[in-house]
Write a structure and sequence with these properties.
There is one protein chain. The chain has one domain. Helix 2 runs parallel beside helix 6, helix 4 packs antiparallel against helix 5 and helix 5 packs antiparallel against helix 6. The chain has about 200 residues and is mainly α. Helices cover about 85% and strands about 0% of the residues.
């Protein structure tokens, strides 16, 4: 019991309860976003969802898993380090896969902001997590702040990307509606000209 009381992880318990709960709740909201995509006129391909939708779920679930890892009753920091290292390595590998998926899909041409939020920042977050795992035992108090910042970064990446998806659908839907209205107006004007002629 004394060892658990001296563990630097104990001080982070409330933080990870809040962050983990947020990750879980936002995962549920991302399902709503996907449902909106399914009902919108702007249809996304499986490749687009794999490149831009699924990673958001993965980031939220990573925050949830990270919170669970850091809230578990570990006997020492060595096991925590291994768990964080595995999560960070898996995240880096997945980040490279997402980057390749974003490059190979043809339904949407990503701009710099898309590359930043969907590829670069997630890779940085997972690399920070992997680096933290390597340094945790030597500098536990400092490194736990980096891990906490990484969790927050992944939450903000997910929130931004979910919002980006919703606004894309809303604007895409409006543009599709405007295009349909314009085409309808042009057809009506054409009929009026033909009727007069």
């Amino acid at each position: 019991m004394e060892q658990a009381a001296r563990s630097p992880l104990v001080l982070w318990e409330s933080f990870y309860v809040i962050v983990g709960s947020s990750g879980a709740a936002l995962t549920g909201l991302q399902f709503v976003v996907i449902a909106l995509i399914a009902q919108s006129r702007t249809r996304a391909s499986a490749r687009q969802i794999d490149a831009f939708g699924t990673p958001t779920i993965v980031h939220f679930c990573t925050v949830l898993l990270l919170s669970a890892i850091l809230s578990a009753p570990w006997q020492g920091l060595s096991q925590v380090s291994v768990a964080l290292g595995a999560l960070g390595l898996a995240g880096v590998i997945y980040g490279v896969i997402v980057l390749l998926r974003a490059r190979s899909q043809t339904g949407y041409r990503p701009v710099f902001e898309d590359w930043l939020w969907h590829a670069i920042l997630p890779l940085i977050a997972y690399a920070l997590l992997l680096s933290s795992a390597l340094l945790l035992r030597g500098y536990p108090h400092r490194v736990l702040f980096v891990v906490g910042a990484t969790a927050i970064l992944l939450l903000f990446i997910g929130i931004h990307n979910a919002w980006d998806t919703v606004t894309f659908i809303a604007v895409g839907g409006l543009e599709s509606q405007e295009a349909a209205n314009t085409a309808g107006d042009q057809d009506e004007q054409k009929r009026e000209v033909e009727d007069k002629g």
